[in-house]
Amino acid sequence: MAQTQHTHSISLGDANTDFGHLMGSYNNVIYKPDDDARMLRWLSPLEPNHRHHYVRSDRFDGIGSWLLEASEFREWRSGEGGADKAVLFCYGNPGVGKTYLR
Amino acid sequence: MRYASSLVIDSLCDQAWEGDIAVAGLYCDFLARREQTATNMIGAILKELVHRGGIPGHVREAFQMGMRGYRGRGPRIMDLLGMLRTTVASISQVFICIDALDECHPRELFELLTSLREIIREFPAMRIFLTGRPHMVENTQGYFPKAIVVPMTTKTEDIRNYLQMRLGRDDEPEAMDSDLRVDIMGVMLETVPDT
Lengths: 102, 195
Description:
The complex is a heterodimer of chains A (102) and B (195). Chain A is mainly alpha-helical and 102 residues long. Chain A has 2 domains: 1-45, no CATH class; 60-102, no CATH class. Chain A contains 6 helices and 1 strand. In chain A, helix 1 runs antiparallel to helix 2 (15-30). Chain B is built from 8 helices and 4 strands; from the N terminus they run H-E-H-H-H-E-H-E-H-E-H-H. Chain B has helices at residues 2-16, 38-53, 57-68, 77-89, 106-122, 136-143, 156-168, 178-190; strands at residues 21-27, 93-99, 127-132, 148-151. Chain B has a 3-stranded parallel β-sheet with strand order 1-2-3, with helices on both faces. Chain B is elongated, with a radius of gyration of 22 Å. The two termini of chain B are 16 Å apart. At the A-B interface, helix 3, helix 4, helix 5, helix 6 and strand 1 of A face helix 1, strand 1, helix 2, helix 3 and strand 3 of B. Strand 1 (87-91) of chain A pairs parallel with strand 3 of chain B, so a sheet runs across the interface.
């Protein structure tokens, strides 16, 4: 795929055409073609991905990383221990975290 | 708590490139209660799991079947749970993260968590990360008596990192020196209760 694109851009030498191809390949890789998008929408109208991108854009490096280092988290994440260790519940007040720091 | 959830989701996703791992993240939201039904949430989890690896054949077939029905009906929760089982069975490690359980309608939460509990019984390697306010601890343990429970507090270390970041972005860098920086850090951290 990358090979084809490369040849194309050189032979045409046209920045716009090249851009169009890049966009096309980007859409194919990252976004699904129409049918797939319809199927995903059919599975659920919710788009948790959008919410995730919004929340993560507000994060600061290094803050909260103690959780990822905590033994409870690491044990849970390892996937060992079967169903008994399947659920990790973190509780706190809404003020904890980002909003507390503002 | 959203903060912790997004951090955990990203950390798991980073690992997902290394192997046969899939991660689904869901943020419950009081304002979105009407559409955050158990059916839609199970569907969203499934959507997240199949998104990266390409939609599996069994989901495509279910979609075609659904489209054949009257005006193309949406999937029922039983259909979605069936697809979720088949999907989980095909991936060696599945992580599901659900943020702010207390913001979910109790009836929908019941349906969601009892469904996930059934799936864990079948697939004990599956991992679920949940967050919620303190009053949800007992509630969650009702569904998962052996859940590992971790309190989230703002650690002094977090505040130190945050202060350092903010001091680094100071508007008047010429007025800042290492002594002043140490003084500010000292005074600010003194006001923080021990955690």
